[in-house]
Amino acid sequence: LDVIKQQLQEFIPHVKNISDYSIRKIAGRDLARFKEFKKQGIAVRFGRFTQKENDQIQKNVEEFLSLTGIDSAEKLLFSYKYPEERKTIQRLKTKHQFCEKISAGIPRPWRLIYYRARKIYDPNIRKGKYSNEEEKKLLRYQARHGNDWKTISAMMSRSTLSLGRKYSIIKSAVNNGHWSKKEIQKLTHAVEEVIKKRIEEEEAEEEENVLPSSETSSRDLLIEREKLYYNLPWTEIETKVGTRNWRQCKQKWHTILRARMNKGKEVIRGNEALQMKINLIKRLHEMQVEDINDVKWIEVCNAIGDFPSSYLQDKFYKLKISCVPLWRRKTFSEIINYLYEKKLPEFEEQL
DNA sequence: TTAACCCCTTGGTTGTGCAA
DNA sequence: TTGCACAACCAAGGGGTTAA
Protein backbone atom coordinates (compact mmCIF):
# COMPACT_ATOMS: atom_id res chain seq x y z
CA LEU A 1 0.00 0.00 0.00
CA ASP A 2 2.85 2.40 0.82
CA VAL A 3 4.37 1.82 -2.60
CA ILE A 4 1.03 2.58 -4.26
CA LYS A 5 0.63 5.72 -2.18
CA GLN A 6 4.09 6.86 -3.22
CA GLN A 7 3.23 6.29 -6.87
CA LEU A 8 -0.08 8.12 -6.52
CA GLN A 9 1.48 11.08 -4.71
CA GLU A 10 2.78 12.28 -8.06
CA PHE A 11 -0.76 12.50 -9.46
CA ILE A 12 -2.83 13.27 -6.35
CA PRO A 13 -1.03 15.71 -4.04
CA HIS A 14 -3.56 15.15 -1.22
CA VAL A 15 -3.15 11.37 -1.33
CA LYS A 16 -2.12 11.19 2.32
CA ASN A 17 -5.61 12.36 3.34
CA ILE A 18 -7.36 9.58 1.41
CA SER A 19 -8.32 6.39 3.25
CA ASP A 20 -6.56 3.11 2.48
CA TYR A 21 -9.87 1.79 1.22
CA SER A 22 -10.16 4.49 -1.45
CA ILE A 23 -6.45 4.25 -2.29
CA ARG A 24 -6.93 0.59 -3.21
CA LYS A 25 -9.89 1.51 -5.41
CA ILE A 26 -7.99 4.26 -7.19
CA ALA A 27 -4.90 2.06 -7.55
CA GLY A 28 -6.88 -0.72 -9.17
CA ARG A 29 -8.40 1.32 -11.93
CA ASP A 30 -6.82 4.74 -12.19
CA LEU A 31 -3.10 4.42 -11.57
CA ALA A 32 -2.43 2.88 -14.98
CA ARG A 33 -4.62 5.54 -16.64
CA PHE A 34 -2.80 8.33 -14.83
CA LYS A 35 0.57 6.96 -15.95
CA GLU A 36 -0.70 6.83 -19.50
CA PHE A 37 -1.83 10.47 -19.30
CA LYS A 38 1.57 11.41 -17.90
CA LYS A 39 3.29 9.87 -20.92
CA GLN A 40 1.18 12.21 -23.06
CA GLY A 41 2.13 15.15 -20.85
CA ILE A 42 -1.39 15.53 -19.41
CA ALA A 43 -1.80 16.27 -15.67
CA VAL A 44 -4.56 14.72 -13.52
CA ARG A 45 -7.28 17.25 -12.82
CA PHE A 46 -9.51 17.97 -9.81
CA GLY A 47 -12.21 20.54 -9.14
CA ARG A 48 -15.04 21.51 -11.47
CA PHE A 49 -15.43 19.76 -14.79
CA THR A 50 -14.69 22.03 -17.71
CA GLN A 51 -16.99 22.35 -20.72
CA LYS A 52 -14.48 20.34 -22.74
CA GLU A 53 -14.61 17.49 -20.22
CA ASN A 54 -18.41 17.52 -20.14
CA ASP A 55 -18.45 17.32 -23.94
CA GLN A 56 -16.00 14.41 -23.82
CA ILE A 57 -18.24 12.54 -21.35
CA GLN A 58 -21.23 12.95 -23.65
CA LYS A 59 -19.17 11.76 -26.58
CA ASN A 60 -18.01 8.70 -24.60
CA VAL A 61 -21.57 7.85 -23.54
CA GLU A 62 -22.90 8.14 -27.08
CA GLU A 63 -20.11 5.98 -28.45
CA PHE A 64 -20.73 3.34 -25.78
CA LEU A 65 -24.43 3.31 -26.63
CA SER A 66 -23.81 2.76 -30.31
CA LEU A 67 -21.20 0.10 -29.53
CA THR A 68 -23.53 -1.93 -27.31
CA GLY A 69 -26.91 -1.14 -28.86
CA ILE A 70 -28.34 0.02 -25.51
CA ASP A 71 -30.97 2.50 -26.60
CA SER A 72 -30.66 5.34 -24.08
CA ALA A 73 -28.22 6.96 -21.70
CA GLU A 74 -30.85 6.65 -18.97
CA LYS A 75 -30.89 2.87 -19.39
CA LEU A 76 -27.10 2.78 -19.33
CA LEU A 77 -26.62 4.99 -16.27
CA PHE A 78 -29.81 4.28 -14.30
CA SER A 79 -30.30 0.61 -15.09
CA TYR A 80 -32.00 -0.03 -11.72
CA LYS A 81 -35.08 1.64 -13.23
CA TYR A 82 -35.33 -1.12 -15.85
CA PRO A 83 -35.44 -4.42 -13.90
CA GLU A 84 -36.24 -6.53 -16.97
CA GLU A 85 -33.26 -5.32 -18.99
CA ARG A 86 -30.90 -4.81 -16.09
CA LYS A 87 -29.00 -8.09 -16.44
CA THR A 88 -28.47 -7.68 -20.17
CA ILE A 89 -27.23 -4.13 -19.71
CA GLN A 90 -24.88 -5.31 -16.98
CA ARG A 91 -23.47 -8.03 -19.23
CA LEU A 92 -22.88 -5.56 -22.06
CA LYS A 93 -21.14 -3.14 -19.72
CA THR A 94 -18.70 -5.78 -18.51
CA LYS A 95 -18.11 -7.17 -21.99
CA HIS A 96 -17.33 -3.77 -23.51
CA GLN A 97 -15.34 -2.36 -20.57
CA PHE A 98 -17.74 0.30 -19.45
CA CYS A 99 -15.35 1.99 -16.98
CA GLU A 100 -12.51 2.37 -19.44
CA LYS A 101 -14.75 3.60 -22.25
CA ILE A 102 -16.69 6.09 -20.17
CA SER A 103 -13.56 7.69 -18.73
CA ALA A 104 -11.55 7.77 -21.97
CA GLY A 105 -9.69 11.01 -22.57
CA ILE A 106 -10.52 12.55 -19.18
CA PRO A 107 -7.63 12.72 -16.71
CA ARG A 108 -9.64 12.18 -13.52
CA PRO A 109 -10.50 9.20 -11.30
CA TRP A 110 -13.05 7.17 -13.24
CA ARG A 111 -15.55 7.13 -10.40
CA LEU A 112 -15.88 10.89 -10.45
CA ILE A 113 -16.36 10.78 -14.21
CA TYR A 114 -19.11 8.21 -13.74
CA TYR A 115 -20.88 10.46 -11.21
CA ARG A 116 -20.60 13.42 -13.51
CA ALA A 117 -22.11 11.36 -16.36
CA ARG A 118 -25.05 10.39 -14.16
CA LYS A 119 -25.60 14.00 -13.28
CA ILE A 120 -25.55 15.09 -16.92
CA TYR A 121 -28.11 12.45 -17.93
CA ASP A 122 -30.32 12.43 -14.81
CA PRO A 123 -33.86 13.11 -16.10
CA ASN A 124 -35.00 14.15 -12.61
CA ILE A 125 -32.75 17.14 -12.19
CA ARG A 126 -34.61 20.41 -12.06
CA LYS A 127 -32.65 23.40 -10.87
CA GLY A 128 -33.45 26.72 -9.26
CA LYS A 129 -35.06 27.97 -6.10
CA TYR A 130 -37.76 25.88 -4.42
CA SER A 131 -41.18 27.51 -4.58
CA ASN A 132 -43.50 27.55 -1.55
CA GLU A 133 -45.63 24.98 -3.32
CA GLU A 134 -42.62 22.70 -3.76
CA GLU A 135 -41.64 23.05 -0.11
CA LYS A 136 -45.17 22.07 0.97
CA LYS A 137 -45.09 19.11 -1.42
CA LEU A 138 -41.73 18.02 -0.06
CA LEU A 139 -43.01 18.03 3.52
CA ARG A 140 -46.13 16.12 2.47
CA TYR A 141 -44.21 13.48 0.52
CA GLN A 142 -41.61 13.09 3.25
CA ALA A 143 -44.37 12.48 5.80
CA ARG A 144 -45.75 9.76 3.51
CA HIS A 145 -42.53 8.12 2.26
CA GLY A 146 -39.96 8.99 4.92
CA ASN A 147 -36.45 9.70 3.61
CA ASP A 148 -36.99 7.65 0.47
CA TRP A 149 -35.56 10.42 -1.71
CA LYS A 150 -35.52 8.23 -4.81
CA THR A 151 -39.32 7.88 -4.75
CA ILE A 152 -39.82 11.54 -3.88
CA SER A 153 -37.33 12.52 -6.58
CA ALA A 154 -39.44 10.77 -9.22
CA MET A 155 -42.52 12.65 -7.96
CA MET A 156 -40.94 16.09 -7.79
CA SER A 157 -38.29 16.10 -10.54
CA ARG A 158 -35.53 17.15 -8.19
CA SER A 159 -32.32 15.24 -7.52
CA THR A 160 -32.19 13.06 -4.38
CA LEU A 161 -29.33 15.15 -3.03
CA SER A 162 -31.17 18.41 -3.54
CA LEU A 163 -34.30 17.03 -1.84
CA GLY A 164 -32.43 15.60 1.15
CA ARG A 165 -30.65 18.83 1.81
CA LYS A 166 -33.67 21.02 1.28
CA TYR A 167 -35.62 18.89 3.76
CA SER A 168 -32.91 19.13 6.38
CA ILE A 169 -32.86 22.91 5.92
CA ILE A 170 -36.64 23.17 6.31
CA LYS A 171 -36.65 20.98 9.42
CA SER A 172 -33.52 22.36 11.09
CA ALA A 173 -33.83 24.58 14.13
CA VAL A 174 -30.95 26.91 13.27
CA ASN A 175 -31.29 30.67 13.49
CA ASN A 176 -31.53 32.92 10.48
CA GLY A 177 -30.78 36.58 10.03
CA HIS A 178 -28.38 38.77 11.93
CA TRP A 179 -25.89 37.19 14.30
CA SER A 180 -26.22 38.14 17.97
CA LYS A 181 -23.12 39.26 19.92
CA LYS A 182 -23.27 36.01 21.88
CA GLU A 183 -23.31 33.93 18.70
CA ILE A 184 -20.33 35.84 17.28
CA GLN A 185 -18.44 35.27 20.52
CA LYS A 186 -19.22 31.57 20.41
CA LEU A 187 -18.08 31.35 16.81
CA THR A 188 -14.82 33.20 17.49
CA HIS A 189 -14.07 30.96 20.47
CA ALA A 190 -14.90 27.84 18.50
CA VAL A 191 -12.59 28.81 15.63
CA GLU A 192 -9.80 29.79 18.03
CA GLU A 193 -10.14 26.45 19.78
CA VAL A 194 -9.90 24.36 16.62
CA ILE A 195 -6.96 26.37 15.28
CA LYS A 196 -5.10 26.07 18.60
CA LYS A 197 -5.79 22.35 18.69
CA ARG A 198 -4.54 21.96 15.14
CA ILE A 199 -1.33 23.89 15.81
CA GLU A 200 -0.65 21.87 18.96
CA GLU A 201 -1.11 18.65 17.00
CA GLU A 202 1.23 19.84 14.27
CA GLU A 203 3.85 20.86 16.81
CA ALA A 204 3.65 17.49 18.50
CA GLU A 205 4.13 15.84 15.12
CA GLU A 206 7.11 18.05 14.35
CA GLU A 207 8.69 17.22 17.71
CA GLU A 208 8.37 13.57 16.85
CA ASN A 209 10.19 14.21 13.60
CA VAL A 210 12.78 16.29 15.53
CA LEU A 211 13.01 19.32 13.28
CA PRO A 212 16.02 21.57 13.88
CA SER A 213 15.02 24.32 16.33
CA SER A 214 15.84 27.17 13.92
CA GLU A 215 13.10 25.97 11.56
CA THR A 216 10.38 25.96 14.17
CA SER A 217 11.21 28.99 16.29
CA SER A 218 10.58 31.62 13.61
CA ARG A 219 7.19 30.07 12.85
CA ASP A 220 5.99 30.23 16.45
CA LEU A 221 5.68 34.00 16.25
CA LEU A 222 2.57 34.14 14.13
CA ILE A 223 -0.06 31.87 12.66
CA GLU A 224 0.23 31.41 8.94
CA ARG A 225 -2.62 33.20 7.21
CA GLU A 226 -4.06 30.14 5.48
CA LYS A 227 -4.54 28.42 8.85
CA LEU A 228 -7.10 31.09 9.79
CA TYR A 229 -9.57 30.02 7.16
CA TYR A 230 -8.31 27.17 5.06
CA ASN A 231 -9.51 23.60 5.72
CA LEU A 232 -11.17 24.29 9.07
CA PRO A 233 -13.42 21.53 10.48
CA TRP A 234 -16.69 23.39 9.97
CA THR A 235 -19.04 20.69 11.23
CA GLU A 236 -17.10 20.61 14.50
CA ILE A 237 -17.42 24.41 14.69
CA GLU A 238 -21.16 24.14 13.91
CA THR A 239 -21.57 21.85 16.95
CA LYS A 240 -19.67 24.26 19.18
CA VAL A 241 -21.75 27.25 18.03
CA GLY A 242 -25.00 25.33 18.36
CA THR A 243 -27.42 27.81 16.76
CA ARG A 244 -26.10 28.00 13.17
CA ASN A 245 -25.23 25.50 10.48
CA TRP A 246 -21.66 25.12 9.28
CA ARG A 247 -22.13 27.13 6.11
CA GLN A 248 -23.47 30.09 8.05
CA CYS A 249 -20.52 29.76 10.45
CA LYS A 250 -18.00 29.63 7.67
CA GLN A 251 -19.28 32.65 5.84
CA LYS A 252 -19.63 34.69 9.03
CA TRP A 253 -16.08 33.80 10.04
CA HIS A 254 -14.77 34.95 6.68
CA THR A 255 -16.56 38.27 7.14
CA ILE A 256 -15.08 38.72 10.63
CA LEU A 257 -11.65 37.73 9.38
CA ARG A 258 -11.76 40.08 6.43
CA ALA A 259 -12.57 43.03 8.72
CA ARG A 260 -9.75 42.04 11.07
CA MET A 261 -7.26 41.63 8.25
CA ASN A 262 -8.40 45.00 6.96
CA LYS A 263 -7.45 46.67 10.26
CA GLY A 264 -10.99 46.56 11.59
CA LYS A 265 -12.42 48.47 8.64
CA GLU A 266 -15.84 47.01 7.83
CA VAL A 267 -16.11 48.09 4.19
CA ILE A 268 -13.72 48.87 1.38
CA ARG A 269 -14.95 51.73 -0.77
CA GLY A 270 -13.91 54.47 -3.14
CA ASN A 271 -10.37 54.50 -4.51
CA GLU A 272 -9.31 51.61 -2.32
CA ALA A 273 -12.06 49.42 -3.79
CA LEU A 274 -11.17 50.59 -7.28
CA GLN A 275 -7.51 49.79 -6.75
CA MET A 276 -8.45 46.32 -5.56
CA LYS A 277 -10.45 45.70 -8.73
CA ILE A 278 -7.53 46.89 -10.86
CA ASN A 279 -5.09 44.62 -9.01
CA LEU A 280 -7.47 41.67 -9.26
CA ILE A 281 -7.95 42.03 -13.02
CA LYS A 282 -4.22 42.52 -13.60
CA ARG A 283 -3.29 39.50 -11.49
CA LEU A 284 -5.85 37.20 -13.11
CA HIS A 285 -4.76 38.38 -16.53
CA GLU A 286 -1.10 37.72 -15.70
CA MET A 287 -1.92 34.18 -14.60
CA GLN A 288 -3.00 33.27 -18.16
CA VAL A 289 -5.43 30.62 -16.91
CA GLU A 290 -7.95 29.09 -19.33
CA ASP A 291 -10.47 27.77 -16.83
CA ILE A 292 -11.69 29.33 -13.57
CA ASN A 293 -11.05 26.00 -11.80
CA ASP A 294 -7.36 26.44 -12.37
CA VAL A 295 -7.12 29.79 -10.57
CA LYS A 296 -5.04 29.51 -7.40
CA TRP A 297 -6.99 31.98 -5.26
CA ILE A 298 -4.54 31.82 -2.37
CA GLU A 299 -1.79 32.98 -4.73
CA VAL A 300 -4.05 35.78 -5.97
CA CYS A 301 -4.63 36.84 -2.33
CA ASN A 302 -0.91 36.77 -1.60
CA ALA A 303 -0.32 39.06 -4.55
CA ILE A 304 -3.14 41.51 -3.78
CA GLY A 305 -3.50 41.89 -0.04
CA ASP A 306 -4.87 40.52 3.21
CA PHE A 307 -8.22 38.90 2.44
CA PRO A 308 -9.66 35.41 2.81
CA SER A 309 -9.66 33.92 -0.68
CA SER A 310 -13.47 33.55 -0.66
CA TYR A 311 -13.72 37.34 -0.47
CA LEU A 312 -11.72 37.83 -3.65
CA GLN A 313 -13.65 35.06 -5.40
CA ASP A 314 -16.88 36.82 -4.52
CA LYS A 315 -15.41 40.14 -5.70
CA PHE A 316 -14.47 38.59 -9.01
CA TYR A 317 -17.95 37.15 -9.45
CA LYS A 318 -19.58 40.53 -8.79
CA LEU A 319 -17.18 42.20 -11.19
CA LYS A 320 -18.00 39.64 -13.85
CA ILE A 321 -21.79 39.93 -13.66
CA SER A 322 -21.81 43.71 -13.43
CA CYS A 323 -19.21 44.54 -16.10
CA VAL A 324 -19.15 41.76 -18.69
CA PRO A 325 -22.08 41.61 -21.11
CA LEU A 326 -23.27 38.07 -21.95
CA TRP A 327 -20.82 36.65 -19.39
CA ARG A 328 -22.73 33.36 -19.24
CA ARG A 329 -21.80 32.62 -22.84
CA LYS A 330 -18.12 33.57 -22.45
CA THR A 331 -15.21 31.38 -21.35
CA PHE A 332 -13.15 32.39 -18.36
CA SER A 333 -10.24 33.64 -20.45
CA GLU A 334 -12.62 35.65 -22.65
CA ILE A 335 -14.06 37.27 -19.52
CA ILE A 336 -10.60 38.15 -18.20
CA ASN A 337 -9.54 39.54 -21.56
CA TYR A 338 -12.69 41.67 -21.74
CA LEU A 339 -12.09 43.03 -18.23
CA TYR A 340 -8.43 43.66 -19.01
CA GLU A 341 -8.98 45.39 -22.33
CA LYS A 342 -12.28 47.22 -21.78
CA LYS A 343 -12.74 47.82 -18.04
CA LEU A 344 -9.19 48.18 -16.73
CA PRO A 345 -8.50 51.44 -18.64
CA GLU A 346 -11.85 52.80 -17.40
CA PHE A 347 -11.02 51.98 -13.77
CA GLU A 348 -7.54 53.45 -14.08
CA GLU A 349 -9.04 56.59 -15.59
CA GLN A 350 -11.48 56.90 -12.66
CA LEU A 351 -8.63 56.47 -10.19
C1' DT B 1 -30.96 59.15 -6.22
C1' DT B 2 -28.27 55.37 -7.24
C1' DA B 3 -24.25 52.60 -7.73
C1' DA B 4 -21.43 50.13 -4.86
C1' DC B 5 -20.90 47.36 -1.20
C1' DC B 6 -21.87 43.91 2.21
C1' DC B 7 -24.60 40.23 4.57
C1' DC B 8 -26.98 36.29 4.22
C1' DT B 9 -29.17 32.35 2.09
C1' DT B 10 -29.41 28.59 -0.85
C1' DG B 11 -28.87 25.57 -4.86
C1' DG B 12 -25.22 23.12 -7.50
C1' DT B 13 -20.96 20.35 -7.78
C1' DT B 14 -17.16 17.65 -6.29
C1' DG B 15 -14.98 14.45 -3.15
C1' DT B 16 -14.78 10.57 0.27
C1' DG B 17 -16.13 6.49 2.86
C1' DC B 18 -18.60 2.49 3.27
C1' DA B 19 -21.47 -1.30 1.96
C1' DA B 20 -23.70 -4.57 -0.95
C1' DT C 1 -19.89 -2.02 -10.26
C1' DT C 2 -23.25 0.58 -8.04
C1' DG C 3 -25.78 3.13 -4.50
C1' DC C 4 -26.10 5.98 -0.57
C1' DA C 5 -24.81 9.32 2.99
C1' DC C 6 -22.46 13.09 4.05
C1' DA C 7 -18.70 16.66 4.03
C1' DA C 8 -16.83 20.38 1.71
C1' DC C 9 -16.38 23.70 -1.75
C1' DC C 10 -18.34 26.91 -5.40
C1' DA C 11 -21.73 29.96 -7.72
C1' DA C 12 -25.46 32.83 -7.66
C1' DG C 13 -28.94 36.00 -6.17
C1' DG C 14 -31.96 38.91 -2.96
C1' DG C 15 -32.08 42.63 -0.19
C1' DG C 16 -30.46 46.18 3.06
C1' DT C 17 -27.20 50.07 3.83
C1' DT C 18 -24.43 53.86 2.67
C1' DA C 19 -21.11 56.84 0.25
C1' DA C 20 -20.88 59.67 -3.64
UniProtKB/TrEMBL annotation:
Instruction: Output the InterPro entries linked to this UniProt entry.
Output: Homeodomain-like_sf (IPR009057), Myb_dom (IPR017930), SANT/Myb (IPR001005), TTF1-like (IPR053078)
Which Gene Ontology BP terms does the record give? termination of RNA polymerase I transcription
Gene Ontology cellular component list = nucleolus
Q: Name one Pfam family in it.
A: Myb_DNA-bind_6
SUPFAM superfamilies for this protein: Homeodomain-like (SSF46689)
Q: Which residues form the Myb-like domain?
A: 122-167, 171-257
Sequence ranges assigned to domain HTH myb-type in this UniProt record: 122-175, 234-261
Any idea which GO molecular function terms this record carries? chromatin binding
**PANTHER family listed in its UniProt record:** TRANSCRIPTION TERMINATION FACTOR 1 (PTHR46760:SF1)
Name of the protein in question: TTF1 factor
Q: What is the lineage of its organism?
A: Eukaryota, Metazoa, Chordata, Craniata, Vertebrata
